[in-house]
Amino acid sequence: MITEIAILTVRLQDKPEFEASFAQAQHIISAMDGYLGHELLQCLEQENQYLLVVKWENLEAHTVGFRQSSEYQQWKQLLHHFYEPFPTVEHYQAIPHLSSSSMD
User: Fold this and answer.
1) What's the whole-model pTM score?
2) What's the 3-state SS for the chain?
């Protein structure tokens, strides 16, 4: 399992519209092969910043299966115009002997 992390900075005036669009977009990603779950967290200090955490079976489920799909084009159309600046997306994996299973 891998974890995709993206810090999303949304223009302050677009927050309500972004959240409404994300409510639609989450149905796209959750239907993808290899998808295990996601969470969208809002920053307490910067209300227009969000942390998107997505769990995938493996890296290719995200980078190939999702990113190269027609569904990703729908995701982009719904969400990408809200970001300023455009987010960096990175992937992480647990270090088994340094991780707690209660985090899943």
Assistant:
1) 0.92
2) CEEEEEEEEECHHHHHHHHHHHHHHHHHHHCCCCEEEEEEEECCCCCCEEEEEEEECCHHHHHHHHCCCHHHHHHHHHHHHHECCCCCEEEECCCHHHCCHHHC
